[in-house]
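[[Local backbone shapes]]
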Amino acid sequence: MNAIDVLRDHKNFAVIGATNNQEKYGYKIFQCLKDLGKNVYGISPVYRDIEGTPTYPDLSAVKNKIDVAVFVVSPKFGVDYVKECQKLKIEHIWLQPGTYNDELISMIKEAKINYYLNCVLVESQNI
């Protein structure tokens, strides 16, 4: 499965690093996925909602099954989220440019979670 298949075939996306700041990728990706008709769960320990859509402090707070966790955070925060993805049996992690390093990729491989390094905003243009 490649990134475009993940985007086309899955419905429930968590955006880790969702924000109200319209200039940030956490906002742009959150809105892009909503515009594509996806169920989008914003993950942010800072914000309570994004334009009226509730957010969650972590992945465990989301009561529905998450198909794909989209990382829009620094790799130093990614480590804890990878552990949470593994615990929750989330099968796909989508890492945006600048959100990963070799250590994080190794950790994801070790956890046997599928991962993608493409940009959601770019791939969404192919749907």
Observations:
- Helices lie at 3-9, 25-35, 75-88, 102-110, 120-123.
- The chain has a mean pLDDT of 96.
